Amino acid sequence: MNMTDVINLVNTNRGTGNKENLFRMRLLMKKIGDPQLDLNCIHIAGTNGKGSTSAFLASILVESGIKTGVFTSPHLEKVNERIQIDKQNISDADFISVTEQVAPLVEEVEEETGERLYSFEILTAAALLYFAEKDCKLVILEAGIGGRLDATNIIKTPEVAMITSIGFDHMKLLGETKEEIAAEKAGIIKEAGTVICPVISPEINKVIRAIATTQKARLNEISHDDITQMIVTDKDSRFHYKQLTDLTIYLLGAHQVMNASLAIEAALELKERGYDIGLTQIRKGLSKTVWPGRMEKISQQPTVIIDGAHNPEGVAMLKQNVAQLFPTDRLVFVVGMMKDKAYMEMIEMILPLAETVYTVSPDPYRGFDAEATAQLISQQGFQSKAFYSVKAVIGELKNKRHQQDTIIVFGSLYLIGDMKKMW
């Protein structure tokens, strides 16, 4: 087996089974030896903010000398990014090794059930096996879609469960209302566990509280009032969180302060559980956190910010951050989204800020029609132009006339990864 074989198994659309239970996943993990039962996990679900919160918490744990595995998705440039130990991507050799162990068992499960496993299920199994083999002390698991029926939800009661946000995304799978989506994501709350979430809205927090009560789990809700003295710039954010003062993070945007606060609360919970985490390590971990593709500045002149906002809540937050960070700048937006998204609704959110909007399809088969989208934008009285490749967009953006502009690239993470790689 080589890395092409690995990618064909863990990063392609191959599943055919129903998604009404975790039977296939449990059967596969049983055949592997249930390595997940030996792992102490932090389980994170949410519409937005999972990756950033994982990155903040992982940085704190690594700073504390705790061997930490992280499983996240999607990736920007290479699938290895999804599986990390102590901030280092899994090597090709280790990826091949664990996949070679899992692959024949995948065949057995598929023969017994008559269903093909989804690639995310196989990838999750390989990651859990890898973390167990490498004897990770803690593992941060980011749910893929939802929570209740997500492949990651075959773990035992985690040390901490976290719900970062609730918004409209993957509605065909999770439900048509935010309350239904919240119930699916709160499915990661297990009996007698601990769950941390922000105060989102009365309706959503009511759903989470009800599930926590049913599971006899302890719920810790973080209020925005716990965050004070917040100063957000295009270089960093400084804030106090409860009794922790003068904290600094370098992930851009006000929303990252809440993600950092969720990570702080999880670290304090782990400290209470006996993990050796000090306030100095929390402070240093936050300041050392990086998370590519989320309000990330990849160029100074022109200023280029890339952000994987691809659902309404994410784009609304992007708009708020851009308006706050660049209030007087001439703004050029580059957008590329999948055609199954409500992309015009999201593009219309940012139009009042835009000098011009460039469109480019992030995928030749699943991406939106860049030309048709540009025409729709133009019909609303805004300047817009379609491009047929990321390379062509970059060529335009590097033209001298854009040197003083601030360029915001947002949408599909396929676009964000290509832009980061090619800029």
Automatic annotation (TrEMBL):
Pfam families: Mur_ligase_C, Mur_ligase_M. GO terms for cellular component: cytoplasm. PROSITE patterns: FOLYLPOLYGLU_SYNT_1, FOLYLPOLYGLU_SYNT_2. Keywords: ATP-binding, Ligase, Magnesium, Metal-binding, Nucleotide-binding. Its cofactor is Mg(2+). Residues 44-266 form the Mur ligase central domain. Residues 293-412 form the Mur ligase C-terminal domain. Coiled coil: none annotated. It comes from the Bacteria. Its EC number is 6.3.2.17. One of its GO terms (molecular function) is ATP binding. It catalyses: (6S)-5,6,7,8-tetrahydrofolyl-(gamma-L-Glu)(n) + L-glutamate + ATP = (6S)-5,6,7,8-tetrahydrofolyl-(gamma-L-Glu)(n+1) + ADP + phosphate + H(+). Belongs to the folylpolyglutamate synthase family. This is tetrahydrofolate synthase. It comes from Alkalibacterium olivapovliticus.
